[in-house]
UniProtKB/TrEMBL annotation, chain A:
Native species: Roseibium limicola
Protein location: Cell membrane
Domain ABC transmembrane type-1: start-end pairs: 55-236
PROSITE patterns: ABC_TM1
GO biological process: transmembrane transport
Source taxon at top rank: Bacteria
Protein name: ABC transporter permease subunit
InterPro entries, alphabetized: MetI-like (IPR000515), MetI-like_sf (IPR035906)
Keywords: Cell membrane, Membrane, Transmembrane, Transmembrane helix, Transport
TrEMBL record, chain B:
Keywords: Cell membrane, Membrane, Transmembrane, Transmembrane helix, Transport
Principal place of residence: membrane
Membrane topology: Multi-pass membrane protein
Parts of the chain that traverse the membrane: 6-24, 31-53, 59-82, 94-115, 121-141, 190-210, 216-239
Family according to the record: Belongs to the binding-protein-dependent transport system permease family.
Annotated protein name in UniProt: ABC transporter permease subunit
GO CC annotations on file: plasma membrane
Keyword Transport part of the UniProt annotation: yes
All residue ranges annotated as the ABC transmembrane type-1 domain in the record: 56-236
GO BP of this protein: transmembrane transport
């Protein structure tokens, strides 16, 4: 017996993809292929290796950028959360970065670092880093005072308190910051491929648009959105699995 | 932070960073970073020019329209999802998906469907903003006190009246929270849209400055843009705090 | 006022004969212009339970945290076993009002955490922790997480953690205020037994008059604005009696009434 929730998810998918199919058959626009055509194109590209090569290319700046953002983001965030001076000095930068449309920096990055991997990694980093830093700093700052006092009263050293109390206590929020960072990183990676130089999936999108192979274009877009959503879902599940008790445990009832 | 017993305001360190920028610029380390003073001088010159005003008004128009559609569509959909379980279960997976999906990938589709103009940029902006508005509105409606709804029914409120007299107001703090995040996302959306469809607004201006190596022009426009975006987000945060009082006392 | 004024009427025990485990001397604590504690002196006899009782704002938790070394006094000093202290030490263990359990750690790790921070080997500290988990009545919950426990059980974990480091002095900051009334009564009875069986000194902050009179060998009544010790009461008549009969004892009821009479004007 399939659960109601899953049944409805399938029903919902059928409705949306059905509407796509019908809209494509009318067609609402010469540039709007049917769902089935797009899926055929997707399967074709998946089997002839086009997608595999493309993703190898697309994931490179994404993975490098996310790694750099995570390591530096968590490090800086931890420092900001622990030190009032550092907080005063660096928080404003990341608060402004978080609110500002950093994508506008892309033209300058291209001029400074060319159209290669470096620029694309940079784009991923500026998109992903602020949320990682701000989440980490906030989580570190909001460690419940009483557990820190507990650590102190049971003779924990400063290092003990950071590694055994502050970091574990902050890790759920740090992790969700990472998830948001990855989500922003995906936006940056694709933006970089569409804006800087068409490589990887961005290349499939741009090229198939230029030769009016719309099913292939839609298939590539469909695949990158699916990949991002599935990956973020996976991260969310890991998060729930790792920190289930932790999150609920804060209730002081 | 406090120095010599004086409490320094939160964002005051930006002055220090501006100073650092000026020094780096004066040292002439890199062509890409002109001194801040030079940028500010350019800024005062650029602000009055017709090309800047045109870019600003085009961007403001796209942004306002995008946010308008996101709010006008997003809030009712969110209320509907919060009230009706079937709608909720049918729509929620998609809302969650688009909330975290790389929406930049959809811009090329918008370009082929709606052309290389304003329409595509407005839709991009709406797409960036709408999902969080729907989700927050839904969350706001879901936490409405049951007895408030029962009160409305017992006094004979019609469904539509209940919709606008009870649900909207009871969920207002969450809705405003969603609108605030939505608007911050919309700022990013409108710029990303203009960068990819680079023939209107600031997208075109950036292209022009970058190809002519007008560094201080570029930074000047960037400063204006960042300042505007930051002000918008701070004003909204302030407004949200003003209604926070009744979020607590509901 | 340097020394607390001691009411002769209830003062029946000779304090000078008892050795003090903790002594607070002229302790003051200011937060900017606010005086949280002003020139407070108090003695805590060894092996006994002393309550700090008073309306909110009287500085009872501040004093406890200064004794625990978590706060630094602006002036004055704290002596533990005759030696001045100004930081947390192995001679004192703290029980927190909100339990201060680590939500990501199970019961046994929480209980053994004090020993873990002291560098005790894992097998050894877990053996000690297991003993105290059983002592507080949580046998079988070693692998549970705090969110799976009720409020009362969580505070038992906090108590087991304090006991497992084997400190001379137990500092309890309103430990039962976050648990329900019935659990609280059970806790109070257990605490009486604990004071009798363990040779430890207890310093107990509470805002419940009945609780203070029920469990204490000595009650220090603190009053706010300015913060001071207004009275020290040593209930003696019913201390050796059965836990069930204390609440019907005339002396118990008298003391409760008297304390309420002196505190009622401070309650808003």
């Amino acid at each position: 017996m399939v659960s109601r929730s899953l049944q409805l998810k399938i029903l919902s998918a059928i409705i949306v993809f059905g509407a796509w199919e019908i809209a494509g058959r009318i067609p609402v626009s010469y540039a709007f292929p049917t769902f089935i055509d797009s899926m055929v194109a997707l399967v074709r590209m998946a089997f002839d290796g086009t997608l595999l090569v493309a993703y190898g290319e697309t994931l490179k700046p994404l993975v490098v950028g996310i790694l750099i953002s995570s390591i530096f983001g968590i490090g800086i965030g931890l420092w900001i959360g622990l030190s009032e001076k550092f907080d005063w000095l660096f928080s404003p930068i990341f608060i402004v970065m978080q609110a500002a449309p950093l994508a506008a920096l892309i033209p300058i990055l291209v001029m400074a670092y060319g159209i290669g991997l470096t620029s694309k990694v940079f784009v991923v980093c500026i998109m992903a880093m602020p949320v990682i830093v701000l989440n980490t700093a906030g989580a570190v700052r909001n460690t419940p005072a009483s557990i820190k006092e507990m650590g102190k009263s049971y003779l924990g050293s400063d290092m003990d308190i950071i590694t055994k109390i502050i970091l574990p206590s902050a890790s759920p929020v740090i992790f969700s910051g990472l998830r948001l960072g990855v989500s922003a990183g995906f936006i940056g990676a694709i933006l970089a491929e569409l804006k800087i130089t068409p490589t990887g999936v961005g290349d499939i999108i741009t090229y198939s648009r230029s030769i009016a192979d719309y099913p292939a274009m839609y298939a590539a877009i469909f695949s990158i959105i699916m990949l991002a959503v599935l990956f973020l879902n996976l991260l969310e599940r890991i998060e729930v699995y790792l920190f289930e008790g932790n999150v609920r445990g804060y209730a002081s009832d | 932070m406090t120095v010599f017993g004086i409490r320094l305001p939160a964002m005051s360190s930006l002055i220090l960073w501006a100073l650092l920028w000026e020094i780096v610029g004066q040292l002439d380390l890199t062509f890409f970073i002109p001194p801040l003073s030079e940028v500010v001088v350019t800024l005062t010159g650029v602000i009055g020019t017709s090309s800047f005003l045109k870019a600003l008004s085009e961007t403001a128009y796209a942004f306002a329209m995008g946010v308008f559609f996101a709010v006008v569509i997003g809030i009712p959909v969110g209320i509907l999802m919060g009230k009706n379980r079937l709608t909720d279960e049918l729509l929620l997976p998609w809302v969650n998906m688009f909330l975290s999906a790389p929406l930049t990938a959809l811009v090329p589709v918008l370009m082929v469907l709606f052309g290389f103009g304003m329409k595509s940029i407005i839709i991009t902006t709406t797409l960036f903003a709408i999902w969080i508005i729907i989700l927050n509105t839904r969350a706001g409606v879901l936490q409405i006190n049951r007895s408030l709804v029962e009160m409305a029914h017992s006094y004979g409120a019609k469904p539509l009246a209940a919709f606008y007299k009870i649900y909207f107001w009871a969920a207002l703090p969450e809705i405003l929270g969603g609108v605030r995040i939505g608007i911050i996302r919309a700022v990013k959306g409108v710029i990303i849209g203009q960068l990819l469809i680079s023939i209107v607004g600031f997208g075109a201006l950036f292209e022009l400055y970058a190809s002519n190596f007008l560094m201080s022009h570029f930074w000047a426009v960037l400063i204006v843009l960042f300042a505007l975006a930051f002000s918008v987000s701070e004003i909204l945060a302030y407004m949200e705090r003003r209604v926070a009082y009744y979020a607590a006392s509901r | 006022m340097v020394m607390p004024q001691i009411k002769e009427a209830v003062m029946q025990l000779d304090v000078s004969g008892t050795e003090n485990a903790v002594v607070a001397r002229n302790v003051s604590k200011n937060y900017g212009k606010v005086e949280a504690l002003k020139n407070m002196s108090l003695e805590f006899p060894r092996g006994q339970l002393t309550s700090l009782l008073g309306p909110s704002g009287c500085g009872k938790t501040t004093l406890l945290k200064i004794i625990g070394g978590l706060l630094q006094p602006t002036s004055g000093e704290i002596e533990v076993n005759g030696k001045p202290v100004n930081a947390p030490g192995p001679d004192r263990a703290f029980v927190f009002q909100d339990f201060a359990l680590m939500p990501w750690a199970n019961v046994i790790r929480n209980v053994a955490f004090g020993l873990e921070l002291r560098g005790v080997a894992k097998s050894e500290r877990e053996a000690i922790a297991e003993k105290y988990i059983a002592d507080v009545g949580l046998k079988g919950f070693e692998k549970s997480y705090p969110h799976e426990l009720s409020g009362g059980m969580r505070q038992r974990v906090g108590l087991a953690r304090a006991l497992s480091v084997d400190a001379d002095v137990l500092l309890m900051d309103e430990p039962f205020s976050a648990v329900d009334e019935q659990t609280r009564r059970k806790f109070q009875e257990d605490l009486l037994r604990l004071v009798q069986n363990e040779n430890k000194t207890f310093i107990f902050v509470t805002h419940s008059i009945e609780e203070a009179v029920y469990v204490s060998d000595q009650i220090a009544i603190l009053l706010p604005r300015p913060s001071r010790v207004s009275e020290i009461i040593r209930p003696t008549g019913f201390r050796s009696m059965d836990a069930d009969t204390i609440r019907r004892n005339p002396e118990y009821l008298d003391i409760v009434d008297r304390i309420w009479a002196s505190l009622r004007s401070y309650v808003e």
